[in-house]
Amino acid sequence: MVSARTSALVVLIAAATTTLLLAHHADAGRILEEVDLCQKTDYPILCRTMVKSKVNAEKATQSAINYLILQTREAKTSSSKAKADKSLMDVCNEMYDDALSNLVTSLQNLKSRDKPSLQTNLSAFISDLETCKDTFAESNAKLPFENIIRLLEQMASNSLALAAGLH
């Protein structure tokens, strides 16, 4: 005959096992949900390149912003070699500097978990790029690096979408 103590132990083990299985199932569901953080972005293929298989929203956002910083620095370097009116290029170079500053601040916002400021600074990045584009448009001049700016704006859009998913 089984003692009351043994029965209680069996019930306790069964309850613990059930709890662990349910917790594991919940974690697995959460991880599967997070695996494709880029699914809801406007440019998911580009996003996946930016986040490099990160499944944590904060780490994915950080990776995306770091990637955007790198690409913006490269864009600034290549854009500075473009043959265009110097005054127009000066505005764009200043906007690139402001844009990079906004991205660095975005990383600080992310680290301090200041989601509203993070989103504000990522939006300001896009505004800086738009100012460069507008400068050329208002002068009826062709922007020689329009494709680069479009790509940077798409990356920033993805970064904003990832930031929106932060808790």
What does this protein look like?
The protein is elongated, with a radius of gyration of 24 Å. Helix 3 runs antiparallel to helix 4, helix 3 packs antiparallel against helix 6 and helix 5 packs antiparallel against helix 6. About 5% of the residues have low confidence. The protein folds into 2 domains: 35 residues; 128 residues, Butyryl-CoA Dehydrogenase, subunit A, domain 3. It is built from 6 helices and no strands. It starts with a helix and ends with a helix. The chain is mainly α.
Question: Which helices and strands occur, and which strands form pairs?
Answer:
Blueprint: H1 4-35, H2 44-51, H3 57-79, H4 86-111, H5 115-138, H6 146-164
Helix pairs in contact: 2-6, 3-4, 3-6, 4-5, 5-6
Domain Pectinesterase inhibitor: 30-162
Keywords: Signal
GO molecular function: enzyme inhibitor activity
Quick structural summary:
With 167 residues, the protein is mainly alpha-helical.
Strand content: under 5%
The number of strands is: 0
- The domain tally reads 2
CATH superfamily of the largest domain: Invertase/pectin methylesterase inhibitor family protein
Average residue-wise pLDDT = 86
CATH topology of the largest domain: Butyryl-CoA Dehydrogenase, subunit A, domain 3
The first-level CATH class of the largest domain is given as Mainly Alpha
Low-confidence stretches: 26-34
H-E string? HHHHHH
Biggest beta-sheet profile: none
Oligomer kind: single chain
Which of globular, elongated, flat, extended, rod-shaped describes the shape?
elongated
